[in-house]
Amino acid sequence: MKTTTLPARGWRFGLALLTLAVLAAAHPAAAQPTEGEARLTALGGATLTVPTWKEVRKDAAVLVLEQLPDPATQKTYQVLMCALEEGPTAKVVRWDKVRQNIVDAASKGGRALELAPKEPFTGAPGFEGQRFQGTFKSGAGKQVALEIVALVKDGKLLTVGVIAESLAPAVTELIDKVAKSARLGTP
Question: For residue 154, how far is the Cα from the chain centroid?
Answer without folding.
Answer: 19
